[in-house]
Design brief:
The chain has 164 residues and is α+β, with helices and mostly antiparallel strands. It has a domain of 109 residues: Nucleoside Triphosphate Pyrophosphohydrolase (Alpha-Beta Complex). Helix content is 20%, strand content 38%. The chain is built from three helices and eight strands; from the N terminus they run E-E-E-E-E-H-E-H-E-E-H. Strand 1 and strand 2 form a beta hairpin. The longest helix has 12 residues. The radius of gyration is 16 Å and the shape is globular.
């Protein structure tokens, strides 16, 4: 769903898009997925469809990107935050410029502690994700810049990622 306004000084449309970020963890380990297109590791994320709640989108994205290994988020055990960003990958910035748009993303973040370390051997690559791993964040390399910024600014001090 988009919310559109016009920036009078630049004649650019300001578009707000709803997005979700899902971060399952266990102790200091986080679940991350490897993007097919960029070969970068990142948190599970995606857009919220028009008639969908953020929670519904989060569960849909969780199931899609993990090939059905994970399907449910226990909202009662989740830390839920909302933040806005103007971050856009370079290829999307070019499209935005051509459309004369400034895109602002409103992210609803679902961080939750998994009860046990899941088996990932049943994961199979899909159209978006070619690998999935659970390990301490610092052990991932080639991480999507957006996720790295989010981790450093919002998660590094979080009580959700406690050492076990």
């Amino acid at each position: 769903m988009s919310n559109v306004k016009r920036n009078q000084s630049s004649n650019m449309r300001i578009v707000t898009r709803r997005k979700v970020l899902i971060i399952p963890s266990i102790g200091e380990k986080v679940l991350m997925v490897k993007d097919v297109r960029t070969d970068e590791w990142g948190f599970i994320s995606g857009g919220v469809k028009k008639k969908e709640s953020s929670f519904q989108a989060a569960e849909r994205e969780l199931a899609e990107e993990t090939s059905g290994l994970f399907t449910k988020i226990d909202a009662s055990k989740s830390k839920i935050n909302v933040f806005y960003t103007l971050y856009r990958p370079p290829e999307l910035l070019k499209i935005d410029k051509a459309r004369r748009e400034i895109v602002r993303s409103m992210y609803t973040v679902y961080m939750y502690e998994m009860e046990s370390l899941p088996t990932l051997s049943h994961f199979f690559p899909n159209k978006e994700v070619n690998d999935i791993q659970i390990k301490p964040y610092r052990e991932f390399s080639n991480v999507w810049t957006f996720c790295d910024d989010f981790y450093k600014n919002h998660m590094a001090k979080s009580t959700l990622l406690r050492r076990v």
